[in-house]
Amino acid sequence: MPASKTTKLNTGAEMPTLGLGTWRSKPGAVEKAVEHALKIGYRHIDTATGYANEKEVGLGLKASGVPREQIFLTTKLNNTDHRDVPRALEYSLTQLDTPYLDLWLMHWPAPMKDGGPDKEHDWRDTWRAMEKVYKEHPEKVKAIGVSNFSVKYLRDLLSFATVVPAVNQIESHPSCMQEDIVEECRKHGIVVTAYSPLGSDGAPLTEDPVVKKLAEKYKVSPSNILISLQANRPGVNVIPKSVTPSRIEENTKIVDLTEEDIQELATIEKKNHIRICKPFWTGWGAIGFPDLEDSEQQ
Ligand code: NDP
């Protein structure tokens, strides 16, 4: 399967299946990582206002020399910006130094202020404000979507939305596949972007014995198996993060896994269920994530 594969969004746009993640990619390193990725053929970059690196991502885009219209650029509305959606968009466009975003996501359905939950603000109003900006300024935002939306939250949103989100970006890897959310998204033509595909910082899932065994079978690295697992799922794309040039290159190899391989990878979650991005830090507790109710205690 070529790394140039794309997934069609409900807007008609093609979103490259493989993108470069940039969470915890520090200013300095991230600029070089984005430049390198684009120079070797990546055409999809994922950032967020919350990563505090949009400016450097923008510098990397420019340094690559790749024309803007060939790049699919995603950023996210910060949890602290739910009350001022138009201003947040202008901030991202200015930081990234770009006239438009290919995709703008609500990072979490969790408005925050002063380091805690903003209980007087409803995330539904945030979505309505994002719809308004999208409809009034198609030249600035090509598609809108959500992130960290469970099935419950998606159904709630779809009950009132006038724009169906193009994408739901969620955590997904063999220790947390979230097949229920992927299924629900497919039903509504929403593309899923799988984040933390390697198990996040330090890529712990590359050490899993099942992943290592399949890496040997296909003569690729464990990271290729984890990335391929997501890229092989219909309607799913994947955004591994790296600031290391050799890994950015390595991560572009995508292999066609068999149904048997996929089933074997799915056994990992049964033994070892891990969710990395727990919503308790937002102060909203396990919003929409019933399996995380205990995490409020952490
Ligand atoms: P990943 O699962 O992509 O793992 C990143 C880690 O793996 C880094 O430590 C990186 O190290 C290492 N790594 C990368 N490639 C390899 C390789 N080939 N071999 C060994 N180690 C490797 O984690 P993230 O949590 O960063 O998720 C990916 C992206 O998803 C984020 O960067 C962000 O863009 C997005 N995301 C979105 C969230 C949301 O709420 N919407 C939440 C979390 C992530 P190094 O960089 O040093 O090479």
Automatic annotation (TrEMBL):
Molecular function as annotated in GO: oxidoreductase activity, acting on the CH-OH group of donors, NAD or NADP as acceptor
Region feature (Disordered): 1-20
Residue ranges annotated for the NADP-dependent oxidoreductase domain, each copy included: 18-268
InterPro entries: AKR, Aldo/ket_reductase_CS, NAD(P)_OxRdtase_dom_sf, NADP_OxRdtase_dom
Biased composition (Polar residues): 1-10
UniProt keyword terms in alphabetical order: NADP, Oxidoreductase
Domain of life: Eukaryota
Similarity field: Belongs to the aldo/keto reductase family.
Protein name: Aldo/keto reductase
Species name: Dichomitus squalens
